Amino acid sequence: MTTTTTPRGKVLSQATDLIAHAEEHGWTVIEQWTPPGYQGAPILRVVIGRRTAEGEFLFRLSWCTNGTRPDRWMVRTPKNPKWHKAPPLTALRIMILTHSATRPPVPRSERS
Predict the structure, then answer these.
(1) By the 8 A CB rule, do 57 and 95 touch?
(2) Is residue 63 part of a domain?
(3) What number of helices (H) and strands (E) belong to the chain?
């Protein structure tokens, strides 16, 4: 597993864990840091997504390296295709696992 670190070497464990979980289950992950010379605490922006037979899942998340959480994490799902507030990380992890590209599909009756 690759560890996501800030330009100054600070580990972002929540980001690292979620990115690894998504990649392990075949989801696409794009990471972008604020540009060099940025004034203030660097920010990691992450987009995680996957297309399924049901539709598209997209998560737009960001982590501030000064320990604060940005105002809103946003998601789009087949059930709610408009951008809306993301659920907690545990719910995102369950969603990734439920719609894994590397494991057999979870029957609808067992989905949360």
Answers:
(1) yes
(2) yes
(3) 2, 5
